Amino acid sequence: MALSSYDRPAAPAPPPGPPASEPSIGDLIGEIGQDLSQLVRDEIELAKAEIKQESAKAGKAVGMLGGAGYAGHVALLFGSLTLVFALANVMDPAWAALIVTVLWAVVGGVLYAAGRKRLRTVNLKPEQTVETLKEDARWARHPTS
């Protein structure tokens, strides 16, 4: 006589444990890590896009400022020539040119000294960023404090 499916003994019940629908703590921590990694990647991509867009705008502005600088240089050159010719009506043209040249040499020297003084005060180390990174590292080591 063959056993029917009703006559077979039942399989043992699985051991009690957490329901299959609830993930373990390890799974949750893994998901948090993945989410955090994705968040950082997304933020980096956003920063890249913003920097690229702003760099394009800055490049156009720098080009315009360069053109303005060149136009200012040409205007200064012609203004200097005008001053030389005006002084040449009163004195020898060579002396007029020398006076204008000395005038520009003095202006250049003053600008050089002022620029050098300001350049000495420049600190290229990003102090606030370094301090923020140190705070982040301290927080990461001791997140409860």
Automatic annotation (TrEMBL):
Under the heading Pfam families, the entry gives: Phage_holin_3_6 (PF07332)
Annotated keywords: Membrane, Transmembrane, Transmembrane helix
Question: Biased-composition ranges for Pro residues?
Answer: 11-21
The organism's superkingdom is given as: Bacteria
> Which InterPro entries does the entry mention?
Phage_holin_3_6 (IPR009937)
Q: Which residues cross the membrane?
A: 62-88, 94-115
Give the region (Disordered) as residue ranges.
1-26
Q: What is this protein called?
A: Phage holin family protein
